[in-house]
Write a structure and sequence with these properties.
It is a single chain. It is built from five helices and four strands. The protein is α/β, with parallel strands linked by helices. The longest helix has 16 residues. It is globular, with a radius of gyration of 15 Å. It has a four-stranded mixed beta sheet with strand order 1-2-4-3, sandwiched between helices.
Length: 159
């Protein structure tokens, strides 16, 4: 069985040219992480909307790059049993800001945000530690994130 990836755009935004490439990357990333039979919803949005989400769910009144909302429900249909692990929201406004900070292209940063969200939905946490330019991560989640991204360095979303 594979995974179900549901990708959408925030209503007030137009889908970027690379929108249709996201699902294939997420499938590949989930396969690399040995995740199977999962359903994930991904929303690409702007800073204004992710700020509202951050304020409503985390009581932080600022935009952020990625938010993950765990669900962990299961359901069954004609294709089999699925684990609905949750939702990921990614701000396309913050994406180029992060890419500049990390001195990477937008494609690399988008892949980082997607893998980061997938790991959170699967029970990983990094506490107060965050990826910082020039520093190797110490926690298990961020080490696995960076290892997975290294394995997927030749995969492209934004071509």
């Amino acid at each position: 069985m594979a995974n179900r990836i549901l990708i959408s755009m925030y209503d007030e935004m137009e889908a970027p040219a690379w929108f249709d490439n996201v699902e294939a990357f997420v499938q590949t990333a989930m396969k690399a992480l040995k995740l199977d039979g999962e359903e994930i919803s991904i929303l690409l949005c702007n800073d204004e909307y992710i700020r509202e989400l951050n304020k409503s769910y985390r009581q932080i009144d600022s935009a952020t790059d990625v938010l993950s909302f765990e669900n962990d429900e299961e359901y069954e249909d004609e294709e089999g049993k699925w684990k609905c692990v949750g939702d990921i929201a990614i701000s396309l406004d913050t994406l180029p800001v992060n890419a500049d900070y990390f001195e990477v292209d937008a494609d690399s940063e988008l892949k980082r945000l997607l893998v980061h969200g997938i790991l959170h939905l699967n029970g990983y946490d990094h506490g107060e530690e965050h990826i910082e330019k020039g520093l190797e991560p110490e926690c298990e989640m961020l080490k696995l994130q960076e290892k997975t991204l290294a394995e997927l360095k030749d995969e492209k979303i934004i071509k």
